[in-house]
Amino acid sequence: MNYLGINAYEKSIHNTGSDAVFMAEDDGRTVIVVASSDGKAVDTHGFNGRDSGDGKFRAPLTHENACALRKLFPFTAPVCGLSKPRSFGLGDRLGIATPGHIDLFMNKDVFPIFAQQSIRELNLTGRTYEDVLDAATFAVFREGYTKGFGADGDHLKTAKDVEYALSLGFTMITLDCSDHIKNDVTESNAPAVSKQYADKYLHTQFDIEDGIRLAFTDAQLRQCVAIYGEAIQFAADMYKRFLASGKYSADFEISIDETVSVTTPLQHFFVARELLDSGVRFATIAPRFCGEFQKGVDYRGDIAQFEKEIKVHAAIARRLGYKLSIHSGSDKFSVFPIIGRETRGCFHVKTAGTNWLEAMRVVSLADPSLYREIHRYALTAFGEASKYYHVTTDLAKIPDISALADSELPKLFENDDARQLIHITYGLILGKKNSGSGQNTEPGQNAGAAGNGFTFRGRLYKLWKEHDAEYRSALVRHIGKHLELLGV
Ligand code: ZN
């Protein structure tokens, strides 16, 4: 809308008394504007920018200005919210999905984590945690969303990364314990346990819930200690160092999912119990469930077995006072009703790649020839990309796109193998450089939208900006389907 002569985002207009602060499109750039009501000099509210002398001050979308915005309008800063019954992670790898997520979550009783990214994703997209958080802050301000959101430093493995996320104000830490989990332990090579463990866990039954009781055999206990002992110690150390000391406040998630061996309910119970007994307070645990949670496609495995196990996992979490966290939750439509039911509507579910896939679906609709170019490149880049992600994609099952009409391209997003092809190559697609061009990104610009020197990046971000409405409605529909099946 036209507001004080500027093309403003209507929902962003905030009157502070003597002036108005809002977001606007100005000269092809998105800026924060401070405008005084009397056309006189404005209070800059800590923003850095340019005063045009007519009572208007324009501030670019830099990290500095995002910090100033979070100070001025606390609703644009993330908050802790995992203690709410339902929470949902929305890894927005591109920094453009939050407006669509807001359209959906505005009317849902689910706490959204708009900013959620792992270090692996940061590296693959060339982004920083500053970018990730700022993109959410700017979107929340632009859309006038004041219900609160979280920011998750996802799959962090080191003290340095944990501190990096916390120091920026991230409100959730997902501690990835996988480097400390010993997968090669078997019943026969697990050493004997100390008397302390034996007294605590053997010759006793743990009453979890009606009809659910757990008991350890000596071999099972030895395995638990040998597999998870070091991971528990690591989690306790990180908790004491950063959270127990009161230095930072954040929701704490224990992730033991990125490992080859499935977490049995008994092992889950052991890990949680040991953590609680050593004083660690956590909001969620992400076990490695049976079956496969591959990226961007439905659950693969024995659904009856999954149902049997998650029933016990959920009961353990209820009994001990935290929530289950379901990772790689994108598109797991066949198990969502089970998750919703067995957790009795108390869960954290993380998605990421599916938001990127929806963005690429928009590309296939809006610019078929650009999509074809990217698809062909992705086929050549797949081998490299599969070093970072575990998938069992069969490229031979993807239709030859030269035989497809433009109107058939969006259908590729219903083919699991084509989905995974595009899903895991995102970093290489976004990072592909024109031959001969060097580093030429524009620092500080929200969401890495500067496309100089890149083969696809600039064209993609331009397209997504022009087709914002389509992307928003695609996300409302697609993520909405996730929530619906989870019983929200
Ligand atoms: Zn995970």
Summary tags:
binds zinc ion; alpha/beta; nine-stranded parallel beta sheet; seven-stranded antiparallel beta sheet; globular; 18 strands
Strand elements, count: 18
What proportion of the residues form beta strands (DSSP E)?
A: 15-25%
Q: Which ligands accompany this protein?
A: zinc ion
Largest beta-sheet details: 9 strands, parallel
Specify the helix fraction band.
Answer: 40-55%
Return residue spans where pLDDT drops below 50 for at least 5 consecutive residues. Answer: 439-448
Task: Write out the strand line-up for the largest beta sheet, numbering strands in chain order.
Answer: 9-8-18-17-16-15-12-11-10
**Structure class:** alpha/beta
> Oligomer, anyone?
single chain
Please render the helix and strand layout as text:
Elements: E1 2-3, E2 6-8, E3 14-15, E4 19-26, E5 29-36, E6 50-51, E7 56-60, H1 63-72, E8 86-90, H2 98-105, E9 111-113, E10 115-118, H3 119-125, H4 129-143, E11 151-156, H5 159-167, E12 172-176, H6 195-201, E13 206-209, E14 212-214, H7 218-244, E15 251-255, H8 265-277, E16 284-286, H9 303-320, E17 323-326, H10 336-342, E18 347-351, H11 353-366, H12 368-385, H13 416-424, H14 426-431, H15 457-466, H16 468-486
Parallel strand pairs: 8-9, 8-18, 10-11, 11-12, 12-15, 15-16, 16-17, 17-18
Antiparallel strand pairs: 1-2, 2-4, 3-4, 4-5, 5-7, 6-7, 13-14
Helix pairs in contact: 1-4, 2-16, 7-8, 8-9, 10-16, 11-12, 11-13, 11-16
The structure holds zinc ion.
What would your notes on this structure say?
With 488 residues, this protein is of the alpha/beta class. Among the domains are: 2-60; 355-486, no CATH class. The chain has helices at 63-72, 98-105, 119-125, 129-143, 159-167, 195-201, 218-244, 265-277, 303-320, 336-342, 353-366, 368-385, 416-424, 426-431, 457-466, 468-486; strands spanning 2-3, 6-8, 14-15, 19-26, 29-36, 50-51, 56-60, 86-90, 111-113, 115-118, 151-156, 172-176, 206-209, 212-214, 251-255, 284-286, 323-326, 347-351. It has a nine-stranded parallel beta sheet with strand order 9-8-18-17-16-15-12-11-10. Helix 11 (353-366) crosses helix 16 (468-486). It binds zinc ion (ZN). Zinc ion binds at residues 155, 255, 257-258, 286, 327.
